[in-house]
Amino acid sequence: MSKNIFITGTGTDIGKTFVTGLIVKKLSQSGRNAAYYKAAMSGNSRGGDGNLIPGDAWTVKSVSGIAQPLGEMCPYVYELAYSPHLASRIEGNPVRLQVVREGFEAVCRNYDYVTMEGSGGIVCPVCFDEAKIQLEDIIRELKLSCLIVADAGLGTINDVVLTWEYMRSHDIPVKGIIFNHFHAGNVMEEDNRRMCEYMTGLKVLACVKDGDTELDIDADELASLYE
Fold first, then answer.
1. 57 CB contacts (<8 Å, ≥6 apart)?
2. CA nearest 178: which of 144, 210, 213, 215?
3. Catalytic residues, which ones?
4. Range 40-73 burial, b when 16+ CB lie within 10 A, else e
5. What is the pLDDT of residues 115-162, one digit of tens each?
6. Which of these, 41, 151, 196, 207, could form a disulfide with 182 (CB 3.0-4.6 Å)?
7. 149: how many CB neighbours lie within 10 A of its CB?
8. What residues make up the domain containing 175?
9. What is the 3-state secondary structure (H, E, C) of the chain?
10. pLDDT for the residue numbered 1
11. Is the pTM for the entire model greater than 0.85?
């Protein structure tokens, strides 16, 4: 039986996918059989054959170096860079919870540590017209605990605390925070770290700097977060 965790962010374009790649890389290079999964990806380009390339999955695969096939990583891939509920309204193929669950369970049968990435921030409508599915519905369906990825810069105290408060009020378990775009020694960012820890009670588990190729956390400590 695999151990799993869910990666959410304080918003879109904060580097959640890159950080997820570093997480998977750390596990894989420590000798653990690690894999990646995401329910729905938007904003993807087409390859020479006209098929959509799952960009986030490709990024994680490139950063981590894992051999997992792209076809296992995401059941729903959209071209338009919109929330999945809107992209699927325009392109078709709306997200079905059963399909997401079956794909996730298939990955869990073949790998020991599965890192699942969310779409955008925690309040993301994944499907709206055919069924009302929020990102949190997927987290509950798969019984996952979470990590929050946040930008280290200005405004992150508000973003982190609001994300955590929403998750807490909706009974979504959170294991900790990872800062991205961090500049060691920067007075504001160092204070952001302290304030986020104080105001949420969560630990900032790692700080990722631009250009980092490794996640600054012990592999055993990272693995212990998975359930």
1. 36, 38, 41, 70, 73, 74
2. 215
3. 38
4. bbbebeeeeeeeeebbbbbebbebbebebeeebb
5. 999 999 999 999 999 999 999 999 999 999 999 999 999 999 999 999
6. 207
7. 28
8. 3-224
9. CCEEEEEEECCCCCCHHHHHHHHHHHHHHCCCCEEEEECEECCCCECCCCCECCHHHHHHHHHHCCCCCHHHCCCEECCCCCCHHHHHHHHCCCCCHHHHHHHHHHHHHHCCEEEEEEEEECCCEEECCCCCEEHHHHHHHCCCCEEEEEECCCCHHHHHHHHHHHHHHCCCCEEEEEEECCCCCCHHHHHHHHHHHHHHCCCEEEECCCCCCCCCCCHHHHHHCCC
10. 81
11. yes
Question: In the numeric block, which tokens belong to residue 15?
Answer: 């580097």
Residue 35: pLDDT band (50, 70, 90) is very high
Task: Look up residue 32 and give its two tokens.
Answer: 């653990």
The tokens describing 210, both together, are 């631009």
**How far apart are alpha carbons 171 and 164 in whole angstroms?**
10
The residues, ordered by sequence, that sit 6+ positions from 156 with a Cβ below 8 Å of its Cβ are 10, 150, 179, 192, 196
Asked if residue 100 lies in contact with residue 39, where contact means CB atoms within 8 angstroms, the answer is: yes
Question: 178 - beta bridge partners?
Answer: 149, 206
> Tokens 């961090």 correspond to what residue?
182
Number of domains observed in the structure of the chain: 1
Q: What is the dihedral of CA 139, 140, 146, 152, to 10 degrees?
A: 60
CA-to-CA separations, 136 to 16, 133, 155, 166, 218, in angstroms, rounded: 17, 8, 24, 10, 28
